[in-house]
Specification:
Layout: E1 6-11, H1 26-40, E2 45-50, H2 58-63, H3 68-92, E3 97-101, E4 110-111, H4 114-122, E5 126-130, H5 140-150, E6 155-160, E7 181-183, H6 184-190, H7 197-205, E8 210-214, H8 220-225, E9 232-235
Helix pairs in contact: 1-3, 5-7
Length: 236
């Protein structure tokens, strides 16, 4: 039995770069597809939100002179490109999947609605929820919090390149220690950068637990589903 019946998996666009400086690393993409396929076979209902930072970030574009709204729209399109790549990789590995978009762009993807997403999940399809919230000034972290709450997921899994939440950045501070579990209030009080404040507050107010783990190590997603304590659980 899987530890969770329905999940929202948040993947980082930057992680898709793998060893590359930019774009999509095919090896990392197929590793992700393999891990997702593994838990789909366990009967887990899977919604996925993927960032676009490997292609374009609206906020960094605004710092370079782009209009913020148009920059964010470019970022939303970057998430759609990543979603199509993941969709293609999943289908190549024999997984039924579909892309829903927060902005109308048929035939690239179907327009998102909660009903369509839940029906697809219940039919055994992996549903990739792209284009963020469809609005500027919201990150894909906020988009994934919103979608997790909407589809009534049991948990939001935040797949990153670190194996959980630490007292400080473990890549910069060797004395940083890892939390097995932490509350939202502790995240606020310690000013930990797990997700942006809007995303964290949405999860806190709607009682949506977040599990932060290292997605870049093949096999870890199944370990989470098997109930192994390899990351950090955030809850009220």
């Amino acid at each position: 039995m899987a530890a969770f019946k329905r999940i929202l998996l948040k993947l980082s666009g930057e992680s898709l770069m793998g060893e590359k400086q930019y774009g999509i690393d095919e090896k990392r993409l197929s590793e992700y597809a393999e891990q997702i396929s593994e838990i789909a076979k366990m009967g887990v209902q899977i919604g996925i939100v993927i960032g676009g930072g490997n292609i374009f970030r609206g906020l960094s574009g605004a710092n370079k002179g782009f209009d913020r709204v148009q920059g964010d729209q470019m970022g939303m399109l970057a998430t759609v490109i990543n979603s199509l790549a993941l969709n293609s990789a999943l289908q190549a590995s024999g997984v039924k999947s579909r892309v829903l978009t927060a902005i109308r762009m048929e035939p690239i993807g179907e327009f998102y609605s909660k009903q369509k997403a839940v029906q697809s999940l219940e039919a055994g399809e992996v549903v990739i929820l792209s284009a963020g919230t469809g609005n500027p000034f919201f990150t894909t972290d906020t988009g994934s919090s919103l979608r997790a709450i909407e589809i009534e997921a049991d948990v939001m899994l935040k797949g990153t390149r670190v194996d959980g939440i630490y007292t400080a950045d473990p890549e910069k501070d060797k004395t940083a220690t890892k939390f097995a579990e932490i509350t939202y209030d502790e995240i606020y009080n310690r000013n930990l950068k797990v997700m942006d404040l809007t995303a964290t507050t949405m999860c806190k107010e709607n009682n949506m637990p977040i599990y932060v783990f290292d997605m870049d190590t093949p096999g870890n997603l199944k370990k989470v589903m098997d109930g192994e304590k390899i990351g950090t659980l955030v809850r009220n």
